[in-house]
Amino acid sequence: MAEIFNKYGPILVTAMGQTLLLALYGLFFACIIGLIVGIMSVVKNKFCRGFALVFVNLIRGVPMIVLAYFIFFGIPFFCNSILKIGGVTLTALQAGSICLALNCGAYMAEIIRAGIQSVDIGQMEAARSLGLPYWRAMQRVILPQAIRTMIPSIINQFIITLKDTSILSVIGFPELVNTAKNVVAATFLSFQTWGIVAIMYLIVILLLQWAAKVLERRLKYESR
Amino acid sequence: MNPDNVKIKVENLRKDFGHLKVLQGVSTEICEGEVVVVIGPSGSGKSTFLRCLNQLEKVTEGRVIIDGQDITDPETDINKLRERVGMVFQHFNLFNNMNVLRNLMLAPVDLKQCGKEEAKERALAMLERVGLQDKVNAFPHQLSGGQKQRVAIARSLCMKPDIMLFDEPTSALDPEMVGEVLDVMKELAHEGMTMVVVTHEMGFAREVANRVLFMDEGCILEEGTPEEVFGNPQNPRTQDFLNKVL
After folding, report:
1. What is the pLDDT of residues A35-56, one digit of tens each?
2. Among partner residues A123, A130, A141, which is closest to B82 by beta-carbon distance?
3. In 10 A of CB A38, how many CB atoms?
4. Bridge partners of B28?
5. How many residue pairs from chains A and B have C-beta atoms closer than 8 A?
6. Would you tell me how many other CB atoms lie within 10 Å of the CB of residue A126?
7. Hey, how many other C-beta atoms are within 10 angstroms of the C-beta on B117?
């Protein structure tokens, strides 16, 4: 194992960097999508709620590998061959980020919806009765309380998404799994290579969990 | 009753929740400085009536006019109106993510009623008034029920309202804490605040109310001074209710 790591370590670490980069892009946009769609699913407006429902069910109902193929191959094909707009291409990083953002965003939306709904309705009523507009009340009173209950689920979703980047090896993005496949193809040492890859994922995820625990404890300490 | 100083005018108020008709045509007038206590069995629509007065419930039909302004009109700036109509809830509803001071300062500062300095002064003055100046930095979960409710009253008062609505303010309290909350409310009443109070505290109604409304099944069945309603109820349902609770 040490032999493999010495020889292919730098490639694998670089690949881990690519995995993290992809995850970071994906999670960043997933948070934005999740927040927007999550709030859309609790507001009064029927159109907003309908959109959120359709979005979440659509994304949750399609396996991520299908979504990845669809975005990476399907969308450029649709633009070039059917819409006749030439030259539309997506890099694997772009397609991968979109795919992760949509997939994770749908789950985040559900976490955020549940978090908002877990805050007692009286909190909103009290804020409104003082004259605060709906969005102001949401921002100052509801979301800060909702986020605290959401953190464990959000971290859980982050971890799932980080691991799901491996699915994007199918569109040729040079992340850890894809790179490891090449290493195995060159060396035939599959036990050692996959063992190293597993440990690398494990380390990153343990670090993430540890950071999450610290964050969670600090948020608790601030108010309770 | 002097019609010149009518503060709240309720005209034929109806409220349906789906098929359930909770308010079936409520009309009344509440004058400036008047303390009106609403009593009645549970499910009679008392709380809904109160919540219609600041539009926490959208009315189905009818009008609520405060200081000549029809608040059921969609054109009315309801947030502006709510700044002047304080509300106290059964379950206190203090903002759990803020300490007492920030609970009191949030709305005045956020709605630009005043600067931070003045808001803080106001908050401290109100806390002193309800006897909780030592709890400035406490979080809601560190307070007893009675203390929470007194903070909630102080929070409403920080907006300098001229009407206060109380929705069963003592119903969720341990018996020994009811008194401290009622004392604050009595003081407020003596200072001339216009108050509408939904409560089961008949003692408070007798002592403080200018007028008592008895509601059942979404209608006001009887109204009058506490002496009239408690001493000589006319409606058989009022009699029946008072027999059960007194």
Report:
1. 999 999 999 899 999 999 999 9
2. A130
3. 25
4. B10
5. 70
6. 27
7. 9
Chain B stretch 183-242, residues whose beta carbon is closer than 8 A to a beta carbon of chain A: none
- CA B143, B147, B149: angle at the middle one, nearest 5? 115
CA atoms of B48 and A105, how far apart (whole Å): 39
Of B151, B132, B133, give the one whose Cα is nearest residue B94: B151
Tell me the shortest Cα–Cα distance from B65 to chain A, in angstroms.
17
For residue range A73-107, list pLDDT tens digits in order.
999 988 888 887 877 888 999 999 999 999 999 99
pLDDT of residue B2 exceeding 80, the answer is: no
Q: What are phi and psi of B87, to 5 degrees?
A: -140, 140
- Collect all residues with Cβ–Cβ distance below 8 Å to B165 and sequence separation of at least 6: B50, B53, B54, B85, B86, B87, B88, B195, B196, B197
Give B134→chain A minimum CA distance, Å: 18
The pLDDT of residue A221: 58
Residue A222: per-residue pLDDT: 58
Tell me the residue type at B215.
M
- Phi then psi for B6, rounded to 5 degrees? -70, 125
Query: Which positions in chain A touch B97 (Cβ < 8 Å)?
Result: 141, 144-145, 148, 223
A129 and B95: CB-CB below 8 Å? no
**What's the DSSP call for residue A82?**
I
Residue of B nearest to A130 (CA): B83
3-class DSSP string for A140-167: HHHHHHHHHHHHHHHHHHHHHHHHHHHH
Joined together, the tokens standing for residue A201 give 């994922």
Rounded to 10 deg, the angle between the B145-157 and B116-129 helix axes is 130
B85 touches chain A (CB under 8 A): yes
B150 to chain A, any CB pair closer than 8 A? The answer is: no
How deeply is A129 buried, as exposed, middle or buried, from its count of CB atoms within 10 A (0-12, 13-18, 19+)?
buried
Instruction: Please answer whether residues B215 and B23 qualify as being in contact, where contact means their C-beta atoms are separated by less than 8 angstroms.
Output: no
Cβ-defined contact of B93 to A123 (cutoff 8 Å): yes
Model-level pTM? 0.84
- Residue A203 near residue A161 (C-beta atoms within 8 A): no
In this prediction, residue A223 has a pLDDT band, given cuts at 50, 70 and 90, of low
The two beta strands, B20-31 and B69-70, are: unpaired
CA atoms within 13 A on the CB side of A146: 27
CA atoms within 13 A of residue B194's CA, in its CB half-sphere? 19
Phi and psi angles of residue A137, each rounded to the nearest 5 degrees, phi first? -65, -40
